[in-house]
Amino acid sequence: MELRHLRYFIAVAEHESVRLASKRVHITQPAISRQIQFLEEELGVALFDRGPRGLRLTAAGAHYLVEARRLLAQLEAAGRSVKLIAAGLQGRLRIGFVENAGWDGLVPELFSRFQREAPGVQFELAPLNTPMQLEEMEDGTLDGGFVYLFEPPPANLATVPLLDHGVTLAVPRAWGLPADVPMRARDLAGRPFVTFPRSIYPAYYDLLLSACRQAGLTLNVVQEVSTEAAILSLVSAGIGAAIVNSANRARPPARAQFLDLADVSIRLPLSFACLSENANPALIRFRTVITAAL
């Protein structure tokens, strides 16, 4: 049995006439009659009662018409779906991002643009630090991500440089430091600091401590936590100061204040990254959205 047999059957059933059905499907009457006969022989049942007033569906034929229409509708829907998937307008896309990069500016704008352009894509966003994103890309559980790269990326990674953030000093408001005076690193000597464990991001950790030492400050680390959101919570609680991504200025905590650092400058280069071999059409479309926005 072929799909054309179902289409011929539906045409005859809807018109109750071989002559009218043949005009609809553009084949001769003898040919469509043979195809209907073949279908009945293959099914082993009569689909039509043939009388002087034309063709009428049998009970079996009426049921088969419902099923044939349903099947063709499913096949047509499947055809539309595969075209949308191939165009990156349907499917699934999982994108990672460093949380503070998603509060304002380019990254949330890219998310919004993609959702407007491809609303049929199941779009999942995963807040993860850069090392975790790179690991999940390698594992195949993440299609791509917005990452800070301080070392040359792996050879199998495609990257699109986006923008640079810097660092800023976060201190408890209870310290009463002047908001309009940039702080020199050496003036923070002895003050308690909150940071993240080196194991979370060794390259950035080493860069941060080196920049502080060059400015005459050895961090007096009193507590380590794994995310900048947690770091800022501890700053707000008065546990200590922290040097954090300047993107955090887009969402200042009520009990902490951000101050400029006069002599500590660290470039935080934000890029979009994905495995070069990832052929997910939704990812390809997302990358075109990024390119168009730059």
Automatic annotation (TrEMBL):
Keyword DNA-binding set for record: yes
Origin: domain of life: Bacteria
A GO term for molecular function: DNA binding
Keywords: DNA-binding, Plasmid, Transcription, Transcription regulation
Domain HTH lysR-type stretches: 1-58
Record-level GO cellular component terms: protein-DNA complex
Pfam families associated with the record: HTH_1, LysR_substrate
PANTHER family: HTH-TYPE TRANSCRIPTIONAL REGULATOR CYNR (PTHR30346:SF28), TRANSCRIPTIONAL DUAL REGULATOR HCAR-RELATED (PTHR30346)
Family, similarity comment: Belongs to the LysR transcriptional regulatory family.
Record protein name field: LysR family transcriptional regulator
